[in-house]
Write a structure and sequence with these properties.
Elements (H helix, E strand, L loop, with lengths): L1 H15 L11 E3 L1 E2 L14 H4 L8 E4 L10 E7 L3 E9 L8 E2 L7 E2 L1 E7 L7 E7 L4 E7 L4 E3 L7 E7 L2 E9 L13 E9 L4 E4 L15 E4 L10 E13 L12 E14 L4 E7 L27 H4 L41 E4 L6 E10 L4 E10 L2 E7 L2 E8 L1 E13 L4 E13 L11 E13 L4 E13 L2 H8 L22 E13 L5 E10 L16 E12 L6 E14 L5 E14 L4 E9 L2 E3 L9 E3 L2 E9 L6 E12 L2 E12 L5 E24 L2 E25 L2 E22 L11 E3 L5 E4 L4 E4 L9 E4 L3 E17 L2 E15 L6 H10 L3 E9 L4
Parallel strand pairs: 1-16, 2-4
Antiparallel strand pairs: 3-15, 4-5, 5-13, 6-7, 8-9, 8-14, 9-10, 10-11, 12-13, 14-15, 14-16, 17-18, 17-49, 18-19, 19-21, 20-23, 21-22, 22-25, 23-24, 25-26, 26-27, 27-28, 28-29, 29-30, 30-31, 31-32, 32-33, 33-34, 34-37, 35-36, 37-38, 38-39, 39-40, 40-41, 41-42, 42-43, 42-47, 44-45, 45-46, 47-48, ...
Length: about 900
């Protein structure tokens, strides 16, 4: 098999090498050395240094009319000295009163903007992007993979000021050279792009023309010349911080861990040190993430883990270097990755067994003792990333009859992630590798359910041709986990594989094993640029024993997934549209025994109209599927297919008052569901933004898993019908007093209710007719004990209860809010004042009306956290 794949790849490369590459004529700009005093960064260009050089212009519109002259003129100048590079950009405007200037928090700018991007590596793949809004708000990002990836979490130390006059507006920028990466040559030549966005016209113009249908971004930059005699600067930034925290919560009588109050004072250190000009060392000691917004609540009735995005700055910055996902696009497969940083510092997995008169205290998170990463890229296109993190051994503190004892809930653990990428053939060919290692020091029997060692790795090959319009992609990955037989049995029976299924012919549980080794991969080919048509076809696979969840993320394995996608784009205005896209998708999935698990397809379109509204629609069919997880380790269950429709629309985003609306509907023999989402965004002033977003979802199902019960030699797979209702309201208020001082509030009440009925057991999970797959319990088989809220089942109607289960109905309420005052009093140095409040309550009374449900939620005793964090960056 592998030999055939290698032959296929070699044949394709030989064919595609014959295609010629067409390149856009590149413009050249000049940077001028400052002979005297450097300009003062104040938003005006009246310094002598600026007067000594000429403006450079000749911009071209990209959006909405690709290739045409822009509606307004734009000019720029670039200066440099031994320490910094300076840019002045004059945005002429014949109607300066229409310039949109709105204050916001850094990296969240709004309104007219300019941007300047440097490919200082001159590798045609990487760019440092600096964007300034007319209000003076700054935003920077690190662009990699020729524009395929953007790291918006990258925080550079730089200065920018703006001014508005009767001719338009000016942005003045200073970027220290230690924020860029470049070689040590006497004469420098960099890639350069300068862009301007006119908010009221939704118009983007570029100095170096790049067609909207062009594949890639950075390799098409213009050229910056004139820089001579500068040398790479070593970057050294050290940021110690201190945190003070006060908590107030409900007191629980007799529980020494719930006294109603808690105080803490902590400190740590973040550092960024340039080892060489090409490589940077990031360090964090005892990191604090107290100012990070909490994860949203949800009720998860599936067998699979919920994915939560990373929000912690240390792990976000540069994360693209460690990514190794298994599916292109934005579906669930794109979340599956060899590296999922939320594993580091997660809630401990151990859960001590305590008695009725005992109380326990388990740490909310696993302490990160320290973490470090080295990242960089050489001048020859070789990128390297290494991350190491150590988390502490954590113990649960248990109080029993006046005495305390301790039980391990998480072992001392080391996480290692390493990557290496190399570019060839003028960056048309790229090879990337990733390796991960998780090693736990397990010294307590109660933690034997965890892997002692876990390894994974992969190789990613990508080749582009015909001016990067076409691509071939191949990925191959492996995994290996080692541990006590108890841990390996738990892995074999986990929801991602369920080897214990009675109808499985190609897998089974082996309780003597101490390791599992699996593989995965992807092979795809497609067209990504030039013209209106795009298409892609790929097949990915994950073997039954593939396991990466120690430091990666995967929901299901034992899967061979095939996709074909084709899209049609119209980039320029026509008829009532400003732009338009149409997409068609088809997919199928099989397990490694050759059984088809799912199939489907859809057609969707998205458009922007000439009135600046946006909208789209979706129609899809999910075919009948064979679920290997619906019965949680029982036999595979056939789930009826159905049709899904979706519609969305948003109003003119340039207005002070904007709104969005979306709705979807799905119907099959088994289930019916709908959702409505609405959002309103109001900007009453240039400094204040208010938004509110309600969401409502309703679902009914005839088969919803309840539990599996074994009595005698019989296993009963109990399911039920369910009526589920979910609603939430998300509110945000952002007040930006200055570009460096902001106040943000976030509030989110969440309600989820579920009512179970028509309890049934699965009798023939693969029956052709839906109603033959189950048998509803009669009144003589199931009774409800209202005193204990327990269902008792007598399947054979012999007067003896065979098994029982708690009432699964739920009425869950949750409220989260977060108030953050952020002041960047010095570039890179910040003060955070944070107030977080949480309220949560649940019961089984589905019938409670909505008004009382909300009232009950806000009657709950809140958990308040008040936090102050001060950091100071030395550089």
């Amino acid at each position: 098999m592998l030999k055939r794949i290698r032959v296929l790849i070699a044949s394709l490369l030989a064919i595609v090498s014959a295609f010629s590459a067409n390149s856009q004529e590149k413009r050249v700009a000049t940077a001028y050395r400052i002979e005297g005093e450097a300009p003062k960064i104040d938003g005006f260009v009246d310094d002598e240094a600026w007067k000594a050089v000429e403006w450079q212009d000749n911009f071209t519109q990209q959006q909405p009319y690709d290739g045409k002259a822009p509606s307004q003129k734009t000019e720029f100048k670039i200066l440099y000295n031994n320490n910094s590079i300076f840019a002045a950009i004059r945005s002429w405007d014949t109607n300066p009163d229409s310039i949109v200037s709105r204050l916001s928090r850094r990296d969240e700018g709004d309104g007219d903007a300019i941007g300047i991007e440097f490919d200082s590596y001159h590798d045609y793949q990487t760019a440092f992007s600096f964007i300034v809004f007319s209000s003076g708000v700054k935003h920077e990002k690190l662009i990699t993979s020729d524009g395929g990836s953007e790291d918006v979490s990258w925080d550079a130390i730089w200065s920018a000021k703006t001014s508005i006059d009767d001719k338009g507006w000016i942005a003045e920028i200073e970027i220290p050279l230690n924020q860029l990466r470049f070689n040590n040559n006497e004469v420098q030549e960099w890639g350069l792009q300068v862009g301007r966005y006119i908010f009221r016209k939704d118009e983007l113009s570029l100095w170096q023309p790049i067609p909207r249908d062009a594949p890639g971004w950075v390799h098409q930059f213009g050229i910056l010349k004139g820089i001579k005699g500068v040398h790479p600067k070593r970057q050294v930034e050290i940021a110690p911080y201190v945190v003070g925290q006060v908590e107030r919560f409900e007191e629980e009588e007799g529980n020494p861990f719930a006294t109603g109050k808690r105080h803490s004072f902590n400190g740590g250190l973040d550092a960024k040190i340039g080892i060489t000009n090409d490589f940077t060392l990031d360090l964090t000691v005892n990191p604090d993430f107290g100012q990070v917004e909490a994860d949203p609540s949800e009720v998860n009735l599936t067998a699979f883990e919920t994915y939560f995005p990373e929000k912690r700055p240390f792990f976000i910055e540069g994360k693209n270097l460690f990514d190794f996902n298994f599916s292109p696009g934005d579906g669930d497969g794109a979340l599956e990755n060899l590296f999922y940083s939320r594993r580091i510092g997660r809630h401990p997995k151990g859960d001590p067994d305590i008695g009725d008169d005992e109380y326990s205290k388990i740490p909310e998170t696993t302490s990160i003792l320290g973490a470090a990463k080295v990242t960089g890229k050489t001048q020859k296109g070789f990128s390297v990333g290494i991350m190491e993190a150590i988390t502490a051994r954590e113990e649960a503190e248990i109080f029993s009859n006046g005495d305390y004892r301790y039980e391990a809930v998480e072992p001392l653990t080391s996480y290692l992630v390493a990557s290496a990428n190399k570019e060839f053939n003028e960056s048309n060919t790229r090879i990337a590798t990733v390796f991960t290692s998780t090693n736990r020091q397990i010294t307590n029997d109660e933690l034997n359910f965890m892997h002692k060692n876990a390894f994974s790795g992969g190789v990613n090959f990508m080749h582009q041709w015909n001016n990067k319009n076409y691509y071939l992609l191949f990925k191959s990955a492996f995994s290996r986990v080692e541990g006590n037989p108890e841990a390996i049995v738990e892995t074999q029976t986990a929801s991602s594989r369920y080897f214990q299924r009675s109808d499985a012919t190609h897998v089974s549980v082996d309780s003597s094993r101490t390791s599992l080794t699996g593989c995965g991969g992807l092979l795809g080919i497609g067209k990504g640029g030039e013209g209106r048509w795009r298409y892609m076809a790929f097949v990915s696979w994950k073997s039954p024993e593939f396991e990466i969840n120690d430091v990666g993320f995967v929901r299901t394995v034992d899967d061979i997934f095939q996709v074909f996608w084709v899209g049609y784009r119209i980039f320029e205005p026509f008829s009532v549209f400003r732009n338009f896209s149409l997409n068609m998708n088809q997919w199928t999935g099989h397990n490694f025994a050759g059984e088809r698990g799912y199939w489907g397809g859809n057609v969707n379109f998205n458009a922007q109209f000439k009135n600046y509204w946006n909208g789209g629609a979706y129609v899809g069919h999910q075919g009948e599927s064979l679920s290997f997880s619906a019965l949680r380790g029982g036999p595979a269950l056939i789930i009826p297919g159905g049709w899904n429709e979706n519609f969305w629309v948003s109003t003119d985003g340039r207005k002070k008052l904007t709104s969005t609306f979306s709705t979807s509907y799905f119907k099959s023999i088994n289930s019916e569901s709908y959702h409505f989402a609405f959002g309103v965004n109001y900007k009453p002033s240039k400094a204040l933004v208010l938004s509110v977003s309600p969401f409502v979802n309703g679902t009914t199902k005839k088969i919803q898993f309840v539990d599996n019960f074994e009595y005698g030699n019989i296993v009963s797979y109990v399911n039920a019908s369910i009526d589920q209702f979910t609603c939430l309201l998300e509110f945000r208020a952002n007040l930006s007093i200055t570009p460096d001082l902001s106040i943000q509030y976030y509030g989110r009440p969440f309600i989820a209710k579920g009512k179970y009925s028509d309890f049934k057991k699965i009798t023939n999970s693969r029956a052709e007719k839906f109603s033959d797959r189950f048998e509803v319990f009669s009144n003589s088989q199931i009774t409800y004990n209202t005193d204990d809220d327990v269902y008792m089942v007598d399947e054979n109607v012999d007067g003896i209860t065979d098994y029982s289960f708690d009432n699964p109905d739920f009425n869950f309420r949750d409220f989260q809010s977060n108030l953050v005052i952020r002041w960047e009093y010095k570039p890179g140095s910040t003060v955070f004042l944070v107030w977080t409040q949480g309220r949560q309550y649940s019961d089984i009374d589905y019938s409670t009306n909505f008004k009382n449900t909300v009232s009950d939620l806000f009657d709950e005793y809140p958990h308040n956290i008040f936090l102050v964090k001060l950091s100071y960056r030395f550089y």
